[in-house]
Amino acid sequence: MPEDTGAELRSSIAAPPGGVMTDEVGVITGDLELATTCADGAVEVWIRYAGADEWYRLSAADCRLHDPRDHEALHNALAAVLNRP
User: Residues with Cβ < 8 Å from 41, sequence gap 6 or more?
Assistant: First the structure.
């Protein structure tokens, strides 16, 4: 995950059945950490194995917010959808 990308939020999740698709390594499963960054309304979505160092981009998840104050709501919605132990 790049440094100095603006506001960052993180959540621990358990991957849904079938896992989560990433751009770099394909599907990952198990206990994961979700991170979103928001700089000037541009949101990037990252995921990694819990406790790992390397982050991966969540496929097709980046977006632009009309109001950057919605970052937390978007992050919480992503975490709720993806967390399906």
Answer: 64, 65, 66, 67, 68
* Sheet strands (E) in 15-51: 20-22, 26-28, 31-39, 42-49
**pTM, two decimal places:** 0.90
Q: In angstroms, rounded to a whole number, what is the distance separating the alpha carbons of residues 20 and 17?
A: 9
- Tokens of residue 40, six digits: 């000037």
Query: Among 14, 25, 75, 13, which Cα is nearest to 55's?
Result: 25
Round to whole Å and give the CA distance between 50 and 8.
17
Contact between 39 and 5 (Cβ < 8 Å): yes
In three-state secondary structure terms, 23 is coil
Task: Kindly report, residue by residue over 19-67, the tens digit of the pLDDT.
Answer: 999 999 999 999 999 999 999 999 999 999 999 999 999 999 999 999 9
